[in-house]
Amino acid sequence: MKAKSTGDLALVKKMNSYIVLNSIRKHSPVSRAQISELTGLNKATVSSLVNELIESSLVLEIGPGASSGGRKPVLLLFNEKAGYAVGIDLGVNYIRGVLVDLNGNIVSERYERLKQQRRELAFDALTANIDALIAEAPESTYGIVGIGAGAPGIVDQEGNILFAPNMKWREVPLRTMLHDRYQLPIIIDNEANAGAQGEQKYGAGKGIRNLVYLSVGYGIGSGMILDKELYKGTSGFSGELGHLSIDFNGKECSCGNLGCWELYASEKALLEEASKLGFEGLDELLSAAQEGNADVLKLFDTIGRFLGVGIANIINTLNPDCVMIGNRMSRAEEWIMPALQQTVQQRALSFHSEQLQILYAELKEHSAVRGAAYYAIDRFFEQFKAI
Ligand SMILES: [Zn+2]
């Protein structure tokens, strides 16, 4: 048998270093002895890897922790300020950007309405947002480690937006466009996938095995976590539940189909009906509901029922632990929930809905932007891992 090459040894070392780093990220503050216990690596290996991680600025040492007797251990802390990432939620009519540290905590945020969907104008607004966030990043060892963005449409694995019907975009190579400008790792995904990921990492989805996250904003997108992993389908295109047909001869949709779910249950559907009553914008509607306006309450009730119809289909298909309502409509929880729950109860098969929870996104309108930032952080740490 051939002796192990140094290549193999380097690989093992890299893997172990990644394991040690992850255990510090997860359990920080933690001692070298605890890491050795947690990882099963011997103390000498842990010590040498920790020293390298300290040199690389990803780990800091802090003063002695509590001791159960004997010498007090020095504790190790993950240095979340060693670098920063940018997360972008590109909505149909807004851009939200955040600068986060390596633990995903928001350091700075910029939000603006997107008045024009024309590709060049939207790209200018997007880069202005990113430039401003990058300019606000504190000094750090790794600087900006990457940019993650969620977009409202079908995104392929190369980061091209193939089709964003509500933006009227086709074939926009967003990843390449951003990479050309920033020369940084860029990750583009559908905004609902990013939202599902954000809630799973930082919000109400923590620890849930099978979760369908619905991004109910201008349209309806969905992100699925199946067996704790984001499910993206064969080509990365899963999750167009907004275009589930719910009315055979229904309204015409921008996707070319008739009777799509999002035409009846999205914020756009709500605002169309609201404008007939002289209301403009979700904020105005929410305060009218608060004041008990009967017409507005009825509107929310109708949206709740339409949401319930689609959700019943999802429950019957996937039997998830949880369906989560995210994005802007999550703000209307109080007003849509009774009708939504009643409809689900009437329409979903009872076996499927027994264990089911309907939850609202904990991060509210920040689910997608934090998920997008997480993509960039995750990509940064991937480089410490052997393939
Ligand atoms: Zn459609």
From TrEMBL:
Keyword hit for Cell membrane: no
A Pfam family that the UniProt record links to this protein: ROK
Key words of the record: Carbohydrate metabolism, Xylose metabolism
CDD domains: ASKHA_ATPase_ROK_BsXylR-like
Superkingdom of origin organism: Bacteria
PANTHER family to which the protein is assigned, alphabetical: BIFUNCTIONAL UDP-N-ACETYLGLUCOSAMINE 2-EPIMERASE_N-ACETYLMANNOSAMINE KINASE, ROK (REPRESSOR, ORF, KINASE) FAMILY
Family of the protein in this entry: Belongs to the ROK (NagC/XylR) family.
Role: Transcriptional repressor of xylose-utilizing enzymes.
Protein name as annotated: ROK family protein
Organism, scientific name: Paenibacillus septentrionalis
